TrEMBL record, chains A, B:
It comes from Patulibacter brassicae. This is Metalloregulator ArsR/SmtB family transcription factor. InterPro entries: ArsR-like_HTH, HTH_ArsR_DNA-bd_dom, WH-like_DNA-bd_sf, WH_DNA-bd_sf. Residues 10-105 form the HTH arsR-type domain.
DNA sequence: GAAAGACGCAACCAAATGGTTGCGCTTCGT
DNA sequence: ACGAAGCGCAACCATTTGGTTGCGTCTTTC
């Protein structure tokens, strides 16, 4: 997947990770997908396309973007691939936000302290 | 600025607010601008353009996007306009993230509890 | 009062983005 | 064995986006 596997994460890494998360969540459809994925444990592209006003391929593209951001993992099962939420990268995003606003907002500063550097 | 001023914020409102924040922070240059703005109290577009490898107008566009997301406020002072960070919308973004990942991640669930619905 | 500094607006351009359709391959059910 | 379900890949299209340049306006300064 992503290069530099196993290498300790430095500031720049977390910025790009957070950036990928922000970019992934910038699209309303993608947020809807994440929301849908927050209810059921897994979902297929076709099932989602049934609920959303767009084609299966469009949904698949969105899921690919989410997967690239590390927010979603795909697992092939027979003839269908089930996607599940993998929310770890969300921490990078929250960290970034807390770090950015810490000097300007008490609550974010507290959040940053709790999350650690 | 944004319509519906004074009306109590509902779920959809916070989603669009969070969406604007995500979109604003999706661009690396914009994150750099926010970072720069996290150090000094205020900054001008020209000053930022001096440090970044791009024109003043490009920086001005980025600042406009950040302002639309409510992350930055502009104040004209004489012949220059100073921009300052207004981090309130960051809370909407954190809230959204916490709400999305709460069922999947204990730390995010705790965060959601602390932030309140 | 005129030059210089900082800004805003508009036009323009290349690349990325969100969507479509069409097609071919694997897998399941009968 | 064969049709249908489900998926992936690729081509294509319109719109958005991140950047540029050029120009006009308003302040400040000399």
């Amino acid at each position: 997947m992503t290069p530099r596997a196993g290498t300790p994460p430095v500031a720049a890494d977390r910025d790009v990770a957070a950036g990928a998360v922000f970019a992934a969540l910038a699209d309303p459809t993608r947020r809807q997908v994440v929301r849908a994925l927050a209810d059921r444990p897994t979902v297929t592209a076709s099932a989602l396309a049934g609920e959303l006003p767009m084609s299966r391929q469009a949904v698949a593209k969105h899921l690919a973007v989410l997967a690239d951001a590390g927010l979603v993992a795909a697992a092939r099962e027979g003839r269908e691939t089930r996607f599940r939420l993998t929310p770890e990268p969300l921490h990078d995003a929250v960290r970034w936000i807390a770090g950015a606003g810490a000097r300007w907002d008490d609550r974010l500063a507290r959040l940053e302290r709790e999350l650690g550097g």
